[in-house]
Write a structure and sequence with these properties.
Layout lengths: L1 H15 L2 H26 L5 E7 L15 E5 L5 H10 L4 E5 L13 E3 L5 H22 L4 H8 L6 E2 L5 E2 L1 H38 L2 H5 L5 H31 L2 H4 L3 H6 L8 H8 L2 H10 L3 H29 L6 H25 L4 H8 L4 H9 L9 H31 L1
Parallel strand pairs: 1-2, 1-3
Antiparallel strand pairs: 3-4, 5-6
């Protein structure tokens, strides 16, 4: 056991002391946070207002077009000539104009033509079209002698409550957060299996190609060498992963400090002096909605299962990657062809994950959460929906047992391949 610990310690310290480890561990979360902050900032910041002149000769809109987007501004003008309106648009007084002839009928209106002095994006066109159609719809309903109260009653959307047989109410926000947590957890394990599994393979390949392994196995058994490399590199990955999580979570709290008006813009509240705006944003707006959604999830269970599947999935696949590395001789390119059978279950698992997050009780989701080669990824997508309502306890326990048994089997098989490959 001491030899395994020495090998693991050597693998761990060799990689942790590299400058590349420090750069990827610290700079990567900072870069992600920087891009994330910029995306939020530019998405929340009010974009340039698009001024659209409307010459409504038929009084179709009654001098009002309702728009949910503050960046769209419809300006009603009394223009007698479309050519003059076009000239003003070319000069930049307006970004676009809508000309409606006097003979246009409300009930039989033809296509409305919006002319702009520059190309419009697909989303902008959709927002303009939606605003015009929504206003036309309301005007047509009002022309049928419907009162505003009746109009509101017609357009009112009823909320549908989803309940279980036990009478528990299933919140839509909880389903959305379950989907997000399941996808993120499964995707993180998916990345870990790829990144650190291939790192184990490269570590084995380097020692075998450089003939160092021939010296090492004179003092240690091949199985001990494989287990030591797996544990050492796994500890590096776990440390790096924990640092990433702590940095990303810690940096989230810096967003209101870096962008003081960000929280207030997101919650549509006036900016408050000092740190009061951060507290206000936490009590209302999107931040409060996020906290409310997370409170509906069993976070301790999700975190515990994530650690188990994180470690179990890594140990299972890293032994297979180590076997591939030991099978490579002089040409490292040979590993590419041998990687395909191992990568396919990982890719297959990620494909099932999307199905499991949308329908966690489907047959393919249950199979994927029990099969050892896919359970580390797929089960995380199901657990987020709750235990035992969605995932029965027996399925969760059986998944644990199958994963442990799969790890023992693959480790035994990989040890045989590793021993033969190293000694050859």
């Amino acid at each position: 056991m001491s030899k395994i610990s020495l090998i693991a310690q050597r693998e761990f310290l060799t990689r942790v002391r590299k400058k590349t480890f420090l750069l990827t561990t610290i700079l990567l979360p900072l870069l992600i946070f920087g891009f994330y902050a910029l995306i939020i900032y530019f998405s929340v910041q009010s974009s340039d207002t698009l001024n659209i002149a409307v010459a409504d000769k038929a009084n179709i809109f009654n001098k009002k077009i309702e728009s949910k987007d503050e960046a769209l501004k419809f300006i009603f003008i009394d223009s007698q000539d479309e050519a003059a309106l076009k000239a003003k648009t070319q000069k930049g007084e307006y970004d676009a104009y809508l000309w409606i002839p006097a003979e246009t009928s409300l009930m039989q209106a033809e296509k409305f033509k919006v002319t702009s002095n520059k190309a419009m994006g697909l989303m902008t066109q959709g927002k303009i079209e939606s605003s015009i159609n929504h206003t036309i719809e309301n005007r047509r309903l009002l022309s049928l002698n419907l009162s505003p109260a009746q109009l509101d009653s017609i357009q009112h959307k009823e909320d549908v409550d989803f309940r279980s047989l036990e009478g528990n109410t299933e919140k839509k926000s909880a389903a959305g957060f379950s989907y997000a947590v399941g996808m993120i957890s499964g995707f993180l394990i998916y990345l870990v299996l790829f990144i650190y599994g291939t790192m184990v393979m490269r570590g084995v390949m380097e020692e075998k190609v450089s003939r160092i392994a021939e010296v090492i196995i004179s003092s240690v058994k091949p199985f001990q060498l494989m287990i030591g490399k797996i544990l050492g590199i796994g500890a590096v990955g776990l440390l790096q992963f924990i640092i990433w999580i702590l940095l990303v979570v810690g940096l989230q709290f810096l967003l209101p400090l870096i962008f003081p008006g960000l929280a207030d813009q997101m919650s549509h509240q006036p900016i408050q002096p000092g740190g009061a705006q951060v507290m206000a944003a936490a009590k209302s707006g999107p931040m409060a909605e996020v906290m409310s959604g997370l409170s509906d999830l069993n976070l301790p269970l999700i975190a515990g299962c994530f650690i188990f599947y994180f470690v179990g999935g890594y140990l299972l696949y890293s032994s297979l990657f180590a076997a591939v590395g030991s099978a490579v001789n002089e040409d490292p390119q040979d590993a590419q062809s041998l990687l395909f059978p191992i990568m396919m279950p990982i890719i297959f698992s990620f494909a099932i994950l999307s199905k499991a997050c949308n329908n966690p009780t489907s047959g393919i989701a249950v199979f994927g959460s029990l099969f050892p080669l896919s359970s580390p990824i797929v089960m995380m997508g199901r657990i987020a929906y709750g235990v035992p309502n969605t995932v029965p306890v027996w399925q969760l326990v059986l998944s644990f047992v199958f994963l442990i048994a799969g790890f023992i089997l693959t480790t035994w098989l990989a040890a045989k391949i590793y021993r033969t490959g190293i000694l050859m």
